[in-house]
Specification:
The structure is a single chain. The protein is about 20% helix and about 25% strand. The protein is built from 5 helices and 11 strands; from the N terminus they run αββββββααββββααβ. Strands 1-4-5-6-10-9-8-7 form an 8-stranded antiparallel β-sheet, with helices on both faces. Strands 2-3-11 form a 3-stranded antiparallel β-sheet.
């Protein structure tokens, strides 16, 4: 099952260009995207963080006995009462940093006070300066998400059931609309289901400024107790020739991003860095169980 959402994405962004009300308040200032290296997390009394690798998956959140879960790398998050395991595919850097993140303090208008979550940070990869959008696997309690923003989990299940083409990003990415929205496919993990897609959001109808975009996974465990999100930047070098192309009209904008989305949609996963195939394989190895 593969879906292409470029038409909806283009129409949504064009609404900004012609003065329609965007999904977010119009007074939100433009926030330039920035990719900065992720530095090692600082442990606090509420959040313990330890850098680990595939060869040494021990964390301060207690290593789980290997007999409890089938995965090469296993982490126990005692504060949340869960164990998370997964394998590192070839091509994915195996340096990670684990922590339990407490309620997120909102610093930008588009953000939410995200609830407590287990975070596995892929510290070798660049990401947004906002901590909630750093390259990481995050596991939330479903009840906490429902209390924060009703409809997130219902929407996820509706997309998987083929009842809607509209999908949300959680955590939220900065931007009033999507200019890139492609490569949506279902990806199941060992005890759950979900989908991933590639997305770039924007506050304005600007030309393409970067070949990078966000790989975003949204999933839920089979018992529906836990929501899984995976955010990581991927690069599409084949888009280099389109960077900075002037767009002078609504029609030119729509045609341009239609071409960009089609190129992304029809590209092989190994044309991206890191490979979409490797990222999908990582997700497929994931398992989340109660301690």
């Amino acid at each position: 099952m593969r879906r292409t959402f470029r038409n909806a994405a283009i129409l949504l962004t064009l609404s900004i260009l012609v003065g329609c009300r965007p999904a977010l308040p119009t007074e939100i200032p433009s926030i330039p995207e920035a990719e900065v290296p992720i530095t090692e997390s600082v442990a606090t009394e509420e959040s313990a963080a330890t850098e680990v690798s595939a060869a040494s998956p021990t964390t301060e959140t207690e290593p789980a006995p290997q007999s409890e879960i089938e995965a090469e790398n296993v982490f126990t998050f005692s504060e949340m009462g869960i164990i998370v395991g997964f394998d590192f595919p070839n091509g994915i850097d195996n340096t990670v940093n684990t922590s339990v993140e407490e309620v997120y303090e909102v610093s930008l208008p588009f953000e939410l006070p995200y609830p407590q979550n287990a975070r596995i940070l892929f510290s070798a990869y660049p990401g947004d300066s906002a901590e909630i959008l750093s390259p990481a696997i995050r596991v939330f309690r479903s009840d906490d998400i429902n209390a924060l923003e009703a409809g997130v989990l219902d929407n996820l299940k509706a997309v998987l059931d083929g009842q809607t083409d509209h999908h949300v990003d959680f955590p939220r990415l900065a931007g009033a609309g999507s200019v890139i929205d492609a490569q949506l496919i279902p990806v199941d993990f060992k005890n759950g289901t979900g989908y991933r897609y590639l997305i770039t959001k924007s506050f304005s109808a600007d030309p393409l400024s970067s070949t990078t975009m966000t790989y975003l996974y949204q999933g839920i465990t089979n018992d529906e107790k836990y929501f899984v999100s995976f955010i990581i930047k991927v690069d599409a070098p084949f888009l280099g020739e389109y960077i900075g192309k002037p767009l002078t009209s609504n029609e030119e904008f729509a045609s341009f991003y239609g071409t960009i989305n089609q190129l992304i949609e029809t590209s092989n996963g190994d044309q991206f860095s890191p490979s979409l195939n490797a990222l999908d394989e990582l997700i497929q190895s994931l398992v989340v169980i109660e301690k």
